[in-house]
Design brief:
By secondary structure, this protein is mostly helical. The chain contains twelve helices and three strands. It has two domains: 48 residues, no CATH class; 165 residues, Orthogonal Bundle (Cytochrome p450-Terp, domain 2), CATH 1.10.230. Strand 2 and strand 3 form a beta hairpin. It is globular. The relative contact order is 0.15. This is citrate synthase (unknown stereospecificity).
């Protein structure tokens, strides 16, 4: 076997995302100096993930979804863990990483899962209600909670109506197709049938609709949620850092955990 060459190493790290050379920084072929001051942070997220800049309508929808997920209070595990972590002396970067690392299948993964659910409903068409009934029944055989619907704190998620309104406006304007929206509405109807209290779509389901309508792959729903929630994690960690606590635990020192006998 011949010795590796410089070209072999260059090919090993080949990327279309960015080009960085002496005096050159390009993102997807666009010089950074042309993006600074002219392109929003959300626009650059789209550019890096998709390879081109979004339209105004696409950017508006993506920004709305990112804003909707930034924070859900210190009782959210990702926030609570970040607040405890920063009191252990690991700094903001470690606290943010600690919080982000809790965003798994249960806390943080529902958007990705809901995208898969809605895509399955859409694929089963054209009778949307029949397709929904079949898909919901199959999912209920596998999971305890249907991802993206209902909320343990909110009877109706306060983020529901603004996001639904924006998606509906985008469908009317031709920005997006509406397939994920129609699937989500069909699931919501299915879950409400025969109940006195409906099971409305929540923020995970709503962002799944947005990301699906915008053409993102389901795994990116979780990645984008991580970007969004990192903002709240940072704010909470920074607030906690300013309060001067050391080794903050999940309960005040005056509250002792219950001892269980075996």
């Amino acid at each position: 076997m011949s010795e590796p060459t410089v070209q072999d190493v260059a090919d090993w790290w080949a990327t279309a995302v960015s080009r960085v050379e002496p005096d050159v920084i390009e993102l997807r072929g666009r010089p950074i100096q042309e993006l600074i001051g002219t392109t929003s942070f959300v626009g650059v997220i789209w550019l890096l993930l998709r390879g081109a800049l979004p339209t105004d309508g696409q950017q508006r929808l993506l920004e709305a979804a990112l804003v909707s997920s930034v924070d859900h209070g210190p009782h959210a595990p990702s926030i609570a863990i970040a607040r405890m972590a920063v009191t252990c002396g690991i700094g903001l970067n470690g606290a943010i990483a600690s919080g982000v690392n809790t965003l798994g299948d249960v806390h943080g993964g529902a958007g990705e899962q809901c995208m898969e659910l809605l895509a399955e409903v859409h694929r089963r068409g054209p009778d949307l209600d029949a397709a929904t009934a079949a898909v919901v029944a199959e999912w209920r055989d596998r999971v305890r909670y249907l991802p993206g619907f209902g909320h343990r704190f909110h009877r109706v998620d306060p983020r529901r109506d603004p996001l639904l309104g924006l998606v509906r406006e985008s469908v009317s304007a031709g920005v997006v197709d509406g397939a994920y929206l129609r699937a989500a509405e069909a699931v919501e109807r299915n879950l409400a049938a025969g109940r006195t209290r409906p099971v409305p779509i929540n923020v995970d389901g709503l962002t799944a609709v947005v990301y699906g309508e915008l053409g993102f792959a389901p795994p990116l729903a979780r990645g984008l949620f991580v970007l969004s929630r990192s903002v709240g994690i940072l704010a909470h960690a920074w607030e906690e850092a300013g309060q001067g606590r050391r080794n903050k635990g999940p309960m005040p020192p005056s509250v002792l955990p219950k001892f269980l006998t075996t």
